[in-house]
Backbone:
């Protein structure tokens, strides 16, 4: 095994947790994980939150985040044991032999310094290159990563470039000292799907050309399938399955891996029955106070009872603003909103109690959508009390019924949100919306913050509830797999306008407009070689034009 | 749960002072203004534990009654300043717009004048009674509470759960008292201890300057003033009330620190 770069044997990682009101406890967060990485290869680490993937990734530079300790096993880098290394040995290693690309480039760059300063900083510090050499190297990397004007790109400040460009600049920073190993920690998770594909392609190409080895950490199996040679599936700090990409994607052995592979394959037949629509957004234009451009431009969509309209677009496309206009938080400057046979007043304060009751909302971050000082019983019970005047035993009984409907059962009514898991929190938010017996629920990215398997559970629950209660959903999302799973009709938004709108089947079938084509083809597919196909296809198209 | 030693000491002295204040008439060996000796500034003896004061009254008894006055005024003024300050602060954060502007600029105006000077001016034209003292001190100090309450509430007001309550059609009362207040409580409670100490120092300063509690009523600041002349003759009677003020200030501070640590600590505390 002459060309083994990194070998981890029986790694054990512990952390100290501080449960409120109790003594601090040591818990094991990674247990008995072993892996080996050859030079120039890419290993994907995949798992849901809490699986220990980032912790294992960082252990490759013998680092533990606040309170995390590497307590057992061996980490061999280039044949050296580094778990027990201290001080100068670690400083020589980090930022030189092993470098790191973080998830949020916007938070990782110093906003007060130019990009070039930061990209070449570690190379200068480690003395691997003179300033002129390092700058030349950085410019070459900018060009390789497809950044605009590579010669002058480094002169800009972080806020002057886009999120995708910043992520690529961080990749350049990691590659600049010519490391043996780069740790990519969810480098594309925070990006829009159309940007993600560019960054992904750039990273893949840079890895191939520089011959560097990489640990690629993500929760998205479809992404990791594009860049990795091997994949390790992790759950609760233990290895579930470890093998070549082909085995994991095409012939998974474990149930958990199979579940992950099939996670995006939910299908939902589109409903076609015609009925009086419950919601009509009629030529709505809106802008925020004190600004001079419209964030919604002449938007017209409608939705029938018991149907789901998915509003798709990337960040800044105006999809959440549409929700704010419908709920009355942002009164439109032009146009009208018709709901359940009446025209809603533009501003929230003028709406009747029934208007408010029949139009409910579920948020992306269930964590902050529930008051942390109220119990589940209060959170779900309040709409019952407020709209229907239920009190005491009757209210409690109805809350329990709602909890049963969201498949949570007994024993949750007196708990606080902090005592629930991410998926359970979102379920409680759904129950709170259902408690009002609404005709329409606006779901704003309700599954984006959840792990894929949990998100699937939430989508199935929403579909069941729709069937039982004939409630309509306005489903805001950037994730097209979710759209396929739940929508009856789709509105694609781009820069405040609806660029494509209609029944699901027709929106998702050709001929496409340019933007929808770009959006649809950018969604990673659970298939090896997908990335190359798309990139090759796009190159051909642009050559043909 | 383990209470750190510093907090234990703080709790002990705070409790001691408050209990003494509450049960003063039963604890004090003599009456508040009772002249019990012909000797002024007599040294401590079995009869008069801390000696006598400038008029031959028992110093220990005056200290105990004085603590009662000081602590009562400070507590009442703190409660007044917290109720006014936090309700107005929450209101400004939730309503926003011109209500926020008017309230905030008025508070800026009050804060631009040093509160001691302001209090001295007001008290020199008003009759100096205990209720007047409490109202003046409470209202002046409520500007600081207003600032904190408004800042905390502005942060909470943009949380999705508050938006959810607004979309439900809840009134301002529910939003302020049920959504915002419980989540703003821990920073406010910790601040309460610090404001209380300021009140103790404030009322003591006013009394020392002669515009606070009026004789023959005893309070710690006034006791320092009455007995300050003795220092020239090497008599330490003025030091006892001064030490009492310092001890109370430090012990309440220790408790407040501990509360703040427990509620907002990065490791393990309940956080926000």
Residues:
């Amino acid at each position: 095994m002459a060309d083994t770069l990194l070998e981890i044997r029986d790694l054990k990682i512990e952390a100290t947790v501080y449960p409120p009101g109790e003594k601090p406890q040591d818990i094991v967060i990674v247990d008995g994980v072993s892996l080996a990485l050859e030079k120039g290869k890419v290993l994907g680490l995949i798992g849901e939150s809490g699986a220990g993937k980032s912790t294992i990734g960082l252990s490759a530079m013998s680092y533990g985040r606040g309170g995390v300790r590497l307590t057992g096993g061996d980490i061999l880098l280039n044949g050296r044991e580094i778990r027990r290394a201290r001080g100068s040995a670690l400083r020589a290693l980090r930022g030189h032999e092993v470098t790191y690309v973080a998830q949020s480039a916007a938070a990782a760059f110093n906003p007060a310094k130019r990009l070039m300063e930061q990209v070449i900083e570690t190379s200068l510090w480690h003395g691997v290159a003179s300033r002129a050499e390092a700058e030349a190297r950085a410019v070459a990397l900018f060009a390789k990563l497809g950044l605009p004007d590579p010669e002058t790109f480094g002169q800009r400040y972080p806020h002057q470039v886009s999120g995708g460009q910043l992520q690529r600049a961080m990749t350049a920073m990691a590659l600049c000292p010519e490391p043996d190993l780069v740790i990519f920690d969810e480098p594309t998770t925070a990006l829009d799907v159309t940007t993600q594909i560019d960054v992904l392609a750039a990273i893949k190409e840079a890895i191939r050309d520089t011959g560097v080895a990489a640990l690629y950490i993500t929760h998205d199996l479809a992404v990791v399938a594009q860049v990795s040679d091997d994949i390790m599936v992790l759950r609760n700090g233990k290895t579930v399955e470890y093998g070549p990409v082909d085995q994991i994607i095409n012939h998974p052995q474990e149930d958990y891996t199979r579940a992950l592979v099939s996670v995006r394959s939910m299908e939902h037949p589109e409903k076609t029955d015609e009925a009086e629509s419950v919601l009509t957004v009629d030529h709505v234009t809106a802008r925020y106070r004190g600004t001079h451009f419209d964030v919604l431009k002449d938007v017209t969509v409608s939705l029938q009872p018991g149907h789901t309209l998915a509003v798709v677009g990337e960040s800044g496309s105006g999809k959440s603003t549409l929700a704010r206009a419908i709920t009355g938080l942002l009164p439109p400057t032009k146009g009208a909103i018709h709901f359940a046979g009446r025209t809603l007043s533009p501003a929230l304060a003028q709406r009747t109690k029934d208007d408010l009751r029949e139009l409910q909302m579920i948020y992306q971050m269930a964590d902050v959508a529930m008051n942390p000082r109220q119990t589940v019983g209060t959170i779900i019970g309040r709409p019952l009390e407020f709209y229907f005047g239920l009190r005491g035993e009757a209210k409690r009984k109805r809350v329990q019924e709602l909890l049963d409907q969201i498949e949570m059962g007994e024993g949750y009514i007196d708990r606080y949100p902090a005592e629930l898991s991410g998926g359970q929190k979102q379920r409680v938010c759904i129950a709170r919306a259902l408690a009002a017996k609404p005709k329409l629920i606006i779901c704003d990215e309700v599954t984006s913050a959840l792990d894929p398997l949990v998100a699937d559970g939430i989508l199935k629950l929403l579909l069941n509830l729709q069937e039982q209660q004939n409630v309509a959903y306005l489903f805001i999302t950037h994730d097209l797999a979710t759209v396929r799973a739940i929508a009856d009709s789709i509105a694609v938004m781009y820069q405040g306008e609806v660029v494509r709108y209609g029944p699901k089947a027709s929106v998702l079938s050709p001929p496409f407009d340019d933007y929808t084509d770009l959006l649809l083809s950018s969604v990673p597919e659970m298939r090896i070689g997908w990335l190359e196909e798309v990139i090759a296809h796009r190159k051909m198209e642009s050559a043909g034009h | 749960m383990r209470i750190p030693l510093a907090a234990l000491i703080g709790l002990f002295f705070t409790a001691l002072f408050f209990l003494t204040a509450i049960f003063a008439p039963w604890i004090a060996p003599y009456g508040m203004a009772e002249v019990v000796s012909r000797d002024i500034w007599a040294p401590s003896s079995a009869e008069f534990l801390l000696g006598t004061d400038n008029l031959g009254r028992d110093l220990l008894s005056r200290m105990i009654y004085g603590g009662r006055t000081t602590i009562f005024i400070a507590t009442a003024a703190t409660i007044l300043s917290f109720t006014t300050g936090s309700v107005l602060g929450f209101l400004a954060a939730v309503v926003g717009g011109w209500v926020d502007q008017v309230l905030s600029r008025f508070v800026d105006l009050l804060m631009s004048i040093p509160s001691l000077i302001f209090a001295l001016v007001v008290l020199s034209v008003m009759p100096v009674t205990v209720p007047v003292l409490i109202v003046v001190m409470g209202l002046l100090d409520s500007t600081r509470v207003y600032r904190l309450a408004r800042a905390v509430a502005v942060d909470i007001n943009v949380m999705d759960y508050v938006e959810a309550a607004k979309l439900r059609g809840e009134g301002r009362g529910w939003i302020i008292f049920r959504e915002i207040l419980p989540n703003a409580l821990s920073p406010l409670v910790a601040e309460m201890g610090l404001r209380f100490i300021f009140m103790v120092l404030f009322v003591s300063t006013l009394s020392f300057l002669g515009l606070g509690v009026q004789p023959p009523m005893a309070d710690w600041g006034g006791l320092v003033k009455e007995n300050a002349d003795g220092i020239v003759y090497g008599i330490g009677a003025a030091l006892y009330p001064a030490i009492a003020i310092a001890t109370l200030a430090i012990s309440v501070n220790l408790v407040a620190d501990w509360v703040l640590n427990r509620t907002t600590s990065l490791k393990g505390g309940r956080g926000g």
